[in-house]
């Protein structure tokens, strides 16, 4: 495939669209004006309804056109601008717990990489050569990898979380679902500042300048700076002569789990009668220390078992008694010896142009994103040189998407072409047992993906719509890994598939509807660069497909005071790509393709209990199991389903007292596995995390017309809970590292609009 040729073809099509008949463009412009008036009217009505206790209208663009959330036949959670401001949502992890059957957590050992699971579909390996199962988009631009995916976007207008395959609507394959981050477009709103102060030395300053540069042209600059001290203090090892332990020297790093993040985003937007133009540039630089890898488990008397216990050669002192450093419950003090760090530098540039033509609205999106990411980790939980690893990663992606959306009578349609080209490289030196075992591995991968897609919705009657979609995908990938010495592994693979979508939606009444949906998803195969086996590293694992069947209901009741949305789904995965940690080294994994069946129920409700009290309850249930008997080359079999809790629950209670509002948010996740180990493996029990519940409390007020003030407490009960872990297995004496969630934090936000 020649990416540049396709890009040139796309630009030619755009140029042709630009020269479409002006009279039609004028008609389109008039229609657009009518749409804007209708949208404004809807907003005004929503505000009026809300003032008397009704549920506001939410307009989404999940199907590439403006629709009411309740009229969209998709399992969809929409997070509005008011909720974003209330909860101070700035990145993908900030919205964790809100959407049913969705998990959003940091990857083990890092704060800038995300693990995203949706309906049991997940990519648990954060290596840069792996493709995420859930697509994340920023203003229509695909964010290609999980490394560096956690960065602040402080001017969000809306977030849409779409559950289930969305390939016939979105440029990149979204086998598990999609998360759309939609920023506020420049509109000349002026200057806005925000200051946040909290415990643990939290200081965050935000500045937004939004002005009209010329008639119809607006510019917006967003600057963000965030710093926070560590949740864990690092100190020398506490054990002295009584335990026979050689005390460690002063640590190189004084605090763990710190944040030092700075970034900006600049956008220019221009509108004419029948076209729009947007150019955005964003940059984020983080220099943090990683979370504490807390030692949760080892075998008894680890030091003696590994020959570093008490001996005459050490004067009767134990050399590396790591077993003394095991602990349960979130630690406040750590004792690690490595100079740990985590750095992430992410930048992007995107150009979006759209124009109304006689065929519909043509939109072209051209973007490039770059990531420079690195870390240095202490992976033994103590002050000894047992396990240290580093990663130095570069990633670049270039994307082009061309869309045509329109309507003809009873037909709404979306047509699109998408191309992605990316290049990834990681250097991953590792050192174990005081340098007795050193591993130097470098790996890289390239991808070249193209797709055409289309979706057509036809109004069969005034109450029944039928939607048909199709997508054709073609991907080429290359993988390379360099082992110790002169050994290397190279591989090439091509993957293609055609997938479809079929939806029937029916209005039961003016305020309730139901839908039936069948959708296919596809995720290309690839190369496992972390395999210790050169043959496995050069042999592509199989692509993954899913057929999703879904039945949904959406309704408004009690004079628009209660919303109930329900979805039942059954996903049948073939060749599900599951990575499992072999613990041959800190970054060593193998891949197994297996079939799986995942079904569940999702319920999203919002109700006004009275004119001043709003209750939201979102619940999800999952039943996930592997249905195939696939066995890996090393004999490994799958049993536990990673990141697939049986139950997720989110409850939000908001009370308006007049001068101020109070908001209580509680999220709960049931017990679940982190890795897919079977019951015969002792690591299975060690890596299951207990159920957890987290409660946040907020007091919000507007003391003046242009000033808002929020006092907040996150993790109100100071709950101590494990989010992730890493099991090193028998080769490392069952060392298991636990990563805990944040402790209770307290602070306030002050927002001032000029």
Oligomer: single chain
The biggest sheet amounts to: 22 strands, antiparallel, barrel
Strand content: over 45%
Helix/strand structural class: mainly beta
Round the mean pLDDT to the nearest integer and report it. 89
The number of domains is 1
The tally of helices reads 6
Output the CATH homologous superfamily.
TonB-dependent receptor, beta-barrel domain
CATH architecture: Beta Barrel
Helix coverage percent:
under 10%
Low-confidence stretches: 1-53
- Radius of gyration based on Cα positions: 26 Å
CATH topology term: Maltoporin, Chain A
How many strand units? 40
Q: Globular, elongated, flat, extended or rod-shaped: what is the shape?
A: globular
Question: Could you name the CATH class?
Answer: Mainly Beta
Distance between the termini: 52 Å
